[in-house]
Design a protein that fits this description.
CATH superfamily of the largest domain: DNA Cyclobutane Dipyrimidine Photolyase, subunit A, domain 3
Order of helices and strands: EHEHEHEHEHHHHHHHHHHHHHHH
CATH architecture of the largest domain: Orthogonal Bundle
Number of domains: 3
Strand content: 5-15%
Distance between the termini: 53 Å
CATH class of the largest domain: Mainly Alpha
Shape: globular
Amino acid sequence: MTAPILVWLRHDLRLADHPALYDAARQGPVVLAFCLDEAGGRPFGGASRWWLHQSLRALGNVTLAMGKSEQEIPRLARLCGARGVYWNRSADPRLRDVEDRVEAALGDQARIFPGDTLFAPGAVRTKDGGQFQVFTAFWRAALALPAPDRPLPVPPDLRFAPCPGLTLDQLTLMPKLDWWRGMDRDWQPGEAGAARLLKDFLAGPVQSYHTERDRPDRPATSRLSPHLAFGEISARQIWSAARAAAPGQGMETFLKEVGWREFSRHLLFNHPSLPHVPLRRDFAAFPWRDDPEALRKWQMGMTGYPIVDAGMRQLWATGWMHNRVRMIVASFLVKDLLIPWQAGEEWFWDTLVDADSANNAASWQWVAGCGADAAPFFRIFNPVTQGEKFDPDGAYMRAWVPELAHLSGTTIHQPWKLGRVPGYPAPMVDHAKARERALAAFKGLRAPIDQPSLF
């Protein structure tokens, strides 16, 4: 029997459009392998661990290991008599460091393939070879490059070779708390679930995406983000399917959002410290507040502002939050409460099923005003007017804040005007005063446009 090739999986838990698997399967039997490496890269958060468990179970035929990848992957290769080890390259510099160690341990056995970006990390550059700081310019330059490769099909002659490993339960991925029950009801992790969501989205909602995507009270978004985060579907698959569907403004707006994902990956590739170090260096001196009690109220959705609390409770219950609401709750944390954006990034990392180092960090830096193409710090969302604009009838807020379910569409935005609502807190801060405090803090930080940065 022909010796197998071991295909090392990470954030690419799929069979279709998998360059390493496709090439390996053409040559004979394959062994799919996944190693839970808590020391290599950033450990998975609680919600991501639940999703990973379900995704590995859905994929099946995966040999599992736990420990340092540079030790476990070569060990599995020896165990199954593999004649080669293939994998897709990551855009995350920390994971690339792990890859380098695995490659060094394997020597000539290793073969590396393009990863899951539309354009190779580092390929989108300014005319003088620099890094783009503004999304619009980045995306214009990216689209001027040769079009992304067409996605590969599932290998037609895919054969799996046996290789002993750990059981899925031995990875102990499932959170000890049963707060994942809501996730279990809301999601179908795996390649089939991703394909179904994409098909359903392109069949209808995408046509009004440009006008409806900011409405959390309407099912107007694709909800593909966790499937993308775990590589159950690739950016190339989404891009190709969207381009083949009916054109329109909604489709172009959706593809632009795919571009933002690409932008964040290129940012992380160029700035490995993105999840914890502001790209604007002057923000390192920002006078953030250390207030664990305020942070906890925000985390639990007990701020007294209905749109903020609805978002935070949706997050806790389902592992996901509408993107417009993510911006609102993030602005409230860093600007109304003056709590460091890193604290919010860490909470999202632990509770989002779509937790992604690049997207999560870039988005928090964007809201805080210290990242690439960031919203200026003085742009401070008013949680009342944001709710009135994007959830005008209060349907979203009533769904996630049952204490306010009896209130009408207009009164729900400012329930404190009705007096005390049983079981629901008064606003923890006065937004107008908090806004003035934030602007005063920022005033002492402002630097010239040419101030030093990490770009």
